[in-house]
Write a structure and sequence with these properties.
The chain is an alpha+beta fold. The protein has helices at about 1-35, 70-80, 125-140, 170, 265-280, 290-295, 315-325, 330-345, 350-360, 385-395, 400-410, 455-465; strands spanning about 40-50, 55-60, 90-100, 100-110, 145, 150-155, 190-195, 205-210, 215-225, 230-235, 240-250, 255-260, 285, 290, 305-310, 370, 385, 410, 415-420, 425-435, 440-445. The radius of gyration is 25 Å and the shape is globular.
Amino acid sequence: MRKFFLFIFIFQSTIISAQTVSQKINKALADFLNDDQLKHAIVSMYVTDTNGNKIFGYNEQYGLAPASTQKIFTSTAALSLLGKDFRYKTEVGYNGNISNQILNGDIIIKGYGDPTFGSWRYTQTKPDSILNFIIKAIESLGIQKINGNVILDDGSFSYQPTPGGYIWEDMGNYYGSGSWAINWRENQYDLVLKPGKNIGDTSTIIKTNPILAVNDYSNFITTAEENSGDNTILYLPPYGNDAFAEGTIPKGVNRFTVSGSVAYAADQFKAELDSFLLKNNILISGDIVTGASLEKQRIKIPSSQQIIATYSSPSLDSIIYWFMQKSINLYGECLLKTIAYKQEGFGSTVNGVYELKKFWQQNGIDSSALNISDGSGLSPQNRVTSFAMVNALLYAQKQSWFQSFYNSLPDANGMKLKSGTINAVRAFGGYYTAGNGKKYVLSIIVNNYNTSMGGVTSKIFKVLDALK
């Protein structure tokens, strides 16, 4: 009997505690919604305990633009469908025959969408490491001359590199880069500028790093007051030959660097590979040929008769860590296409979206709650409910790879939260353990606010502080 009453006491205490937290959130959210800077905003919020019991809900079934919190759906589905130990591969092979140190045929480098290929984030993925790997693979067969071509086979993925929902102002900037089956240096470049002496003066392009495979770069970036930051927009469409930039950079510095997206990753890789082959005295009678150039001519990409070496990327859990910590949109689009490739044999955004929605529908999330068009959340067309996001986070908790996913979430406001930001959108989703040991799973999405990103963030954190 004593145990029974103890159980009732604990149960009632839990109910009272939950009610208190719910009331605190309700009060904090009411203050939030009454703020003049939020009077035209739409808010969706959902909070549960770790068992999925509802603590608080407000418009939780409304579909809103989630920005980068959409990465929660992509990363957790990728960990389930691919496995945390999954590694991308890039194959180096050849066709033809080798005689007297001459390959009478082609070297074929086949990619499968590795977003870290040439990335600076890992020692093994840095450009020189990868280029040396390829050179050593060729030299291992004693080849000193290629009496044919080096073919960059990026046909595993669609040649449509960007999701249909990306906007023009984003596509030329580093965070809006396209994704291919062969990526290089995270498909971005640095534009190094020298500001003018006076406000309003046109800046000067010092260089691009790496050198861009484009015909012309028109610079309309002017000089603004000191400490005004990066207010530039870079424009270079996929497969484009001409780039231009506008906006402002601050005066008072010798150099100012902004980052953009390359027009076609294989072209950038081609230029550096060509230089590396020459440096290592490996001659080519033909050319380095990209998959897109063959596709344009309706020529089928040749297959390797023999694989010489296979390069492996870092493991998926490590890729997910950077994906979530730095919110790298390229990684999300590659993961989406990789899911499609694994499920259907061809990587495209459309197929990836279909597979992602199917996966979550099979795991209890209504497909209409994920009205999405990409894997990163950059598209303003995306619509997601906070209810669905919390359920994805609840699903993750039950998986063997959960600790890897949890560790990938950034620390924010004393919580483990993935954030999301696009124009007039701020969102958070993740986990929180209160001082009393209570654990919560949460999502809050705010659209159409009228303040700075920092301003709305501090206001959102006051709402979330109700859990503390």
